[in-house]
## 1
Amino acid sequence: MKARKMGLLLAAGVLAITAVTGCSGNAKNSSENAGKNQTESADGTVDIEVWGTNIGYKPVTKGSKLYEFYKEKLGVGVINPYVEWNGGTNYLNQLNLKIAANEMPDLFVPQQGIEDNLAKNGAIADLTDLLPKYAPNVMSAIPEEIWNVVKANDPTGQGRIYYIPNVVQYGRYGSMIRQDWLDKLGLPMPKTQDEYVKVLEAFRDKDPNGNGQKDEIPTGGREQARWMDHLFAMYGVAMFEGYPDWDIYDGQLTYSAVTPNMKASLEFIAKLYKEGLIDKESLLNTKDKWEGKIQSNRVGNYFHWVEQGNLVFENLYKSTGVKAEYSVLPLPEVPGYKGFYTMKKIASPQWVVKNNKDQEKLMATLKLLNNAYDKKNWKDLFLGVEGMHYTMQDGKAIKLPDDKSTQENQIINPATSISTLDMTIDLLNSTASEDNKWEIDQVTRNMQEAQKYAKPIAGDGLPASIYDGFPDINNRTLYAEYATKIIIGEYPISKFDEFVEKWNKSGGEEVTKRAREWYKKVNQ
Amino acid sequence: MFESRSEKVFVSGITIILILMSAIAIIPLLSVISTSLSSKSAVDMNLVTLWPKQFTFDSWAYIIDRPDLWRSFFLTLVTTVIGTALALLMTALLAYPLSKTKSEFRWGGVIMIGVVIAMIFKAPIVPYFLTVRGIGLYNNPLVLIIPHILNPFNLIIMRTFFKQFSKELEEAAFLEGCGYFRMLFQLVLPLSKAVLATLALFYGVLLWNQFQHPLFFLQNPDWFPLQIKIRQFITDDSVIMAGSASTADLNYNSRTLRAATVIFAIVPIILVYPFLQKYFVKGAMIGSVKG
Amino acid sequence: MKAIAFHRMKVYWPLYAMAIPGIIFLVVFKYIPLAGAVIAFKDYSVFKGFIDSPWVGFKHFETLLHHPDFARVFGNTLMLGLLKLVLVFPIPVLLALMINEIRKSALKKGIQTALYIPHFLSWVIVAGIVFDFFSLSGLFNIVLGWFGQEPVLAMQESDYFRPVYVISSIWRDAGWGTVVYMAAISAIDPQLYESAMIDGASKLRQMRHITFPLLLPTVLVLFLLEIGNFLDLGFDQVFNLITPMTYSVGDILDTYVFRTGIQQAQYSFATAVGLFQSVIGFILVYIFNRLSKKVSDGGLW
């Protein structure tokens, strides 16, 4: 009786295996179809495998809608498998596994300075001669001075181009303040730091949202002391989305985290924290939590991408019925310091091309790049597939809301990798409807305003390889620990000097030396 | 049986403590459920604690309506059931000889050390990838089953139970001319329901919750198991660009969907437990011998 | 001699035959990839492969030991490992003994199911719940408020990290841990209890003198398995609960190697740290296995 049961179980197991194996044969075939083996379709289109950021959308597979769209627009078949991103960590590891198995994608986004090793080992194509010849649109879309930085970053030291950079040609960031709250309390826009602090105090005490509760949060930020750049910026600290960056201090390229400017700004922020002028939970806020606070009409001043403001305003309006009015806060003046918002034109390497032995694939990759960087395709590539990524309303293309279960990943989208102010504003306005015009107008005005305070930093384009061997410097581990503890008052500000010393000892000195050598090379 | 007063106090004291602990165990889960049943703006404004605010089924409607999620669900169900059955067989086959004395099975000691090493030492990812790929499991859905059919930890547990198996019973069977295969399948396993249920649970959960193998070995989205699908929701690093559509008309967001998918994925595995519980009844083993 | 060996095989061969598939599995899925751990002694590069990557001896181990924060990271790992062993490990045993005393079958099932549910929430989700619990509007501060206390943001206080670690471990996994023990208890001969009751032994005495001793071999085995992973605390839990303000007590080998090895794809270094953890784990198992063989006939081999 028992034995028979076991036997049945076993038989079922074996049967099931064979069944699944049977299927697996098909799966293998189809994936090979999608992959390298079939280079050319019946109509002569060459397929290439492209890897990049995908935060959960459907992959682009042979014959899918986006595949056909790219084939038509760019003349090349794009296969983009789903590779989990997870902050870049899983992506990088899977990319390495692919490389170890000798199956590097034809075109991909590098991570964590991996392009250096790739270039040194001859695994990615030297683009110096290829781009002007086969993809002139790429050359002309990116300004000369940026190519010079790319050349200086050649790890082989020969001034060759190994990657196509991700370029942002305008100041994306701003400190947004509730203009309607200022007006209600009869306060003028603050100009100096003292006035700014007075405004924050008024936000805290005078119930500007008018709900009778003292629930206002004057300003704040997110975990790891991120997304509160505006509080650092007034002291001239180079700070990029909460990460300290490199700029000229005392005449030399220096990591902003170890400058006296940083010390002064941390002291100031700690004072705000003590007085309840920044969110007590600033250093614990996740993205969700912080945005939730802003959207529940409680936050007076926050720092973020100006161009995403309309989504915040919209959600705030839908949740609370308040049409919030935001202005860009001019950098409050602090005596003895010159404030600015950090602008990085070269955000990171965007694409590297496999050093393909297969000439046909290499040419197809370059053709794809050339057509993708052709200005007249940008809008179409941004919009994607009709019915999937956008829809037509009154003769106007309106982007559909994010839906990871139906939308394929828009892997080729120059609007994200070569942004200019005009184009971004144009994209915003071209998709505006009657209902959200008030938001778009605000955002447009603020974006133009924010340009006044943006300054490109000297460390723009610094390659990740300067951190080789010092991962904890690269990860800002020490900085995050000291900065957060100083802000919440667990450490006195005098501890800052200990941090600088420790930072230098644990590799900061060496990293600084490398950064300065790089700077010399770029500015030859 | 007669019970003294202090006995009753003892038992009710324990009962109260356990009920309290059970409550503490489920309350946080309630908050996840509530999030999945609340409106987008309530969640956005961090209003949801224990009970749903602005009650809505919209997140669930969205989840239930996704064919790809259901596909993953059934794929995971099938691989879990088959994988668990295979794993129990594989594990029992090795655990049984390992439970024998040195005079019966001379390799016992060496293999046990080998098993312990296999449990403690973890292979680096690159060689593991290349090996598993080398045996043809890349882009092959069997990778959802085969690498999991023998787990050193579970093997040691099963061996421990086999070791405690009644020696008299086995000897009696042995004298009747019963070979080891029959002994295992007709005597030992039928009387080890408790441990089989335990390991079925362990393997079942392992297979149901796996994401590492499909993450590294599967590229065809048709073969993605449930956990990979869910990770697409749990991921936090969404970058929204200018000109993106407004989502304000939808009554769900990433947080409510995340909560709903989390519940969606754990309900089936929680439902299994009560069915297995009957094998944990005291004296299950001896009782069946008598009967 | 030969005749005896032949006779042995004639009787015992099925045992060897049974073991073959499992051994093959272990070799293929564990030992062949484990051979790749040699990259701990090399500067492995995906371009050069395992053979051609240059040997560097103990360089990566030295990097680990000479890291300025090594003492802190190692100390934290030991501390949390110890806490887990002393405070978390015994809880499932206690719970199982307690659950065993409940006779109403429905209540028993309900409690067991409730206790094991949290195990199915991943650490990302659990950490979210923990952060909510300790937030300004969370239950913790509401209760503090009842007693007229100032609110405390526990997740950014280093003093709270270890208690949070221990309690969250118990909350998530203790119920699940009882499963093995419940199975072991169910294997106990009921006649033992019957005769004990005839002798007038109280519940507590039965627990102490029958259930617990018979459960001990299982506890011992699980203890040995646990100690093998002494330095391997589980990356997910700590990574999701830690903040920069609690690095000083919460930064452990797993989080350290994630930042410096895995995130940067430094495979050789990550492997070296893994080997370091495993070798210590194995030595511990070896020692405790010897000890356990002295005190009982149990042990792993």
## 2
Amino acid sequence: MTLRASVTPKSSVWWRRWTIALVAGGCLGGPELFAEPVRFSRDVLPILSDHCFACHGPDEGSRKAKLRLDLREGALTPAKSGQRAVVPGEVNASELIRRIVTQDPDDVMPPPESHKALSAVQVETLRRWVAEGAPWGRHWAFEAPRRPVPPGSAAAPGNNAIDALVRAHWDREQLTPAPEADRATLLRRVSLDLTGLPPTPAELAAFEQDRSPQAYERQVDRLLASPRYGERMSWEWLEAARYADSNGYQGDSERTMWPWRDWVVGALNANLTFDQFTTWQLAGDLLPGATPEQRLATGFVRNHMINGEGGRIPEENRIDYLFDQAETTATVWLGATFNCTRCHDHKYDPYTQRDYFSLLAFFNRTAVDGSGGDPQSKPNLEWPSPDQTERRKRLDDAWTRTAAATRELERTKFPRSDANTAADSEAAKDLPKELLEFLRQDPNQRDAGRLEKLAAHWKDSDPNYAQVLTEQRQVRLDRDAVVRSIPRVMVMEDVPTPRDTFVLSRGAYDKPGARVDAAVPPGLAPFPSQAPTNRWGLAQWLLTPEQPLTARVVVNRAWQSFFGIGLVKTAEDFGLQGERPKYPDLLDWLAVEFQESGWDLKHLHRLIVTSATYRQSSQVTREAFERDPENRLLARGPRFRMPSWMIRDVALSLSGLLVERAGGPPVKPYQPPGIWEEATFGNKRYEQDHGEALYRRSLYVFWRRIVAPTMFFDVASRQTCTVKTPRTNVPLHALLTLNDVTYLEAARVLAERTMESGTSDEARIRWLVREVLGREAHSEEVNRLTSALARHQQAFAAAPASARELLQAGEAPRRTTVDPATHAAWTLVSTTVLNLDEALTKE
Amino acid sequence: MDPLTQHQHELTRRAFLGKGATGVGTAALALLLGRERAQATTASPVGGLPGLPGYPQWAPRAKNIIYLFQNGAPTHVDLFDYKPKLKELHGRAVPDEYVAGKRFSTMTGKADGKLLLAPIEPFHQRGQSGAWVSELLPYTAQVADDLCFVKGLHTDAVNHAPGISLMLSGAQIPGRPTLGAWLTYGLGCETENLPSFVVMTSVSKGTSCGQIFYDFYWGSGFLPSRYQGVKFRGSGEPVLYLSNPAGMSASTRRAMLDDVAALNAIKFRAHGDPEIATRIAQYEMAFRMQTSVPELTDLSREPASVLDLYGPSVKEQGTFAYNCLMARRLIERGVRCVQVMHAGWDQHNSLTTELYTQCKDTDQPSAGLVLDLKQRGLLEDTLVVWGGEFGRTPFIQGNLDDRKRWGRDHHPYAFTTWMAGGGVKPGLSYGETDELGMNVVRDPVHVHDLQATWLHLLGIHHERLTYRFQGRDFRLTDVHGKVVSEILA
């Protein structure tokens, strides 16, 4: 298809008639349509991207008619026919406009079969853009953020810049913000957001009694300083980092990456700044004098799945791992959908397939060879506990000592010159060949098996020598056992000579094309001149202030955690097809503030949760809901169902069962029988833990990649990088919190606490509601629960066996002094309250 | 609110307010909540899941689909694709022109010099249509006139997980929505009491080469998770956490849910978030599932004559036969898509041993399902698909002298799948491979073509059913696919 003559009289008449009809009918709903000049990046680029770039965009392979509309030059340069797609200021001379308004089905753009027809508003936007001189610009997210000046000053107390920026939008949109949430709601909200656990009644009482203007900020500071903060905040990072305790794919062997998980929790608690958090994880091993912690942090890169399927080509596996590493990096720091460029140039964003493999080249320098089998493939790092370190040191010393004793004894037992070994001694000449081989080694080289054979040989003829050998053997066995017990974590380590990286045709491992060097995607920000061309340099580039994406992408995810939806809804895509932020100035202000604070995460989180915007009540009228069902305009507080892992933690906490021990190997709490067995044809058996392990936080639950823990829903699969998880509302979730033993046991134990909490049923019910919902019960609620209790009590009194059965849920001991029927009835009342929408929801 | 969301709200609202439920349930709640406010924000996978407006796009030939997926890749040259030439050339090296430049799994590496292997059992032409079916599948042979054999299928993948993923989701990389998810997204589902997309799995006893059933085989990818398949388990409760805890009677549970609903309604009146109304509805649906699933799995009212169609293991939970019967019962109750997966077809070294077990376990139930659907008049509306992710090499894997360990490797270049009912031509064999069964020589059908055809039969244009993710409109057939109109009835 080539560009043809300019607008025909026929189509311009038709166009005029059409526009008049639309305006007369009031159909032109585009908010910016006649109010202000068209803005390229906000108004025009999304249309071009969505409707034109698939054939006239960055991907040369699929480009039609050699026309390229993503660059100004491409749109303005005359085609062979002489036509120009865009002639600034001249609507009638612009072929692009003619082609989008023509009625000729062979000529009209986009072609009907693409099903991408333009709306009247879009056509008008493009027409006006050309008429206004076709100003060009860049996609908003590819320009470095500049800090907007918040309008006015933060007048009201407790208001910060977030509020000033949001308020300006409210004024424009004529929105009335919600009042501040009451203190009980607010404390529960912020406690869940920052620690993943509800406030205790004592904490609530303290907050309610604190009348100082800084009362709320004090609570926030207390929560930020709690070690629970790191446990809460690490969850989303673990999902993005596709952290799991097994390799995935067939076989799904166990792996030991939990020391890395514990490092994340510790780093967040210590408020390691995000630039260091980034650098250590991408390149800790390359830092001068890298500490063990810095090397451990690079486990991030190695968290990908490992394929042990028979018949797989190792090189194909290896390339798959590199794909995952490059794509994870692009998603986590750039919000870039790099996976699109694995096989071809990006259809919408200015990333080429060459860029993809250039980024991949940063990771293509390790000794990883892609062969299956070893679930802890090298390079890896030993991560001993202090106790293991101490024991190993003690046994190393003992080994040196016992080996020296053997050496000393052999010197006299097998006389020989210094240049020779014991095996060369005259005294050894009649010994069996095997033993001679052992004696040729220095005693500190011999393994336990050899020492045992030597000891056996001299057991009767030289018991003293045999005894020395046996002692040495025992030390060796002990030391080997300690070394074996030390966790080994997969980490990054570059080989001295980097491998060559090639562009792979259609992403196929065996179709190498042009060789590429490690490089960052061009056009976003220059690579720092002093930086090395390795992962450390990559990290430095990601963190340069001019690099437009990292800070925005990270603050957006923080917003998403607290408000349930990001300022940019497409947290995974900041490209042209991603959502344009509702409040771009707010996003940019936060991004710059985050950078200039020295990438201080706690500062960022504190800013958000202390804003008046965050502190609003989440109550909503029908009108307000219909206007803004997803609360994108932020004229009320956030309200959404808690993540399933948090629901579990909260239930454990309310029952008093929660065991707050940090870190260590993963635990296996209750799970219905046969889940692993069925998924793995019996190869993996789920050995449920007992005692404290049942009550650890969800963060520490063993994550098997091919069959995730059944007690969670709406969570990332932990198979590939995920920065946004769905939030659904389905019956299967109800069945879980109604029937899973975890929740039933929590209700049973909570019932015991409830029964002890007061002297009347009403007082107990009020206590229960306060405990679970963090607020006072209304009389209507008390009445309903009181009659429920009576009903259940009556039923269980008539069926004592049922009561005893119900009370057997879970392994926590039951106080047998309590009447079973009463306890069972209270258990059901507790279950009822734990299953209320409000109990499952952060509001 | 965009029109689509609006539409869903309306439908959910109607389902929520209008249709009766057990006990106090929804009718009373409507009063409690006040009708005006009872708008739900999200639909559910269970109960009157609405489809997209305008779907199906034309009168569909099939309303439901049952996919009898044979994991591991059944050997086309031993079951359906009869090649006398293989017998003639048995033990001779494969001629170079058949395999030059082709990629096989690492177990084969390069195919040059591999020895051809005759079919394991004799073939016969069956029924009026004269379709070739091996003696390994006597029951399938009896229904050959009801089946449409697509013999020129080919795929891009040479390993299991990518191959299955391509067949079910249109892409080799995990993470795209699968067929069932697309169908329920587009068409919705009528049942109020069961999930709209159900998956069941089984494996033959003593299978040495077990393939894992990854959950992305029935995943919803980037579609909302309410469209993902719900896996019914092969042992114990079919749905996790379905049963009330020991000591809790159904009436106690009902009373408790009434309390939950009443208290939630108080909250909803005070607070106004429609999500609360949805939560009430979901708890009610959970309660209905607690009744409908046990009813589904209660086979006591199936006559012996019907049970006999599926073979002796039909009453054993977790067998392929049981799952086939369950597939029919699910379809009868309004479930849109049932995916029955059976693993163990990976005969690298067990053509003369495990292949027999495999056929025995699947042959009668598959044919039985077709007969049962047909005699109930359900086959007209139901598309049944039987097949795996690729074929197996016409040449041997293993040693020709060691008959007990004969095997065939993965073969993406040609394989056979059969379909029945739902608007496909019965008694047709479509497409042809060369005289060795190595490559397609007439009427090739790519995986994406097959997918386009399925969607077509269900009233969907495969290029139109798209979903935007990461800035791109995705679809089941990726950017490929052509409806195979020659096999449409």
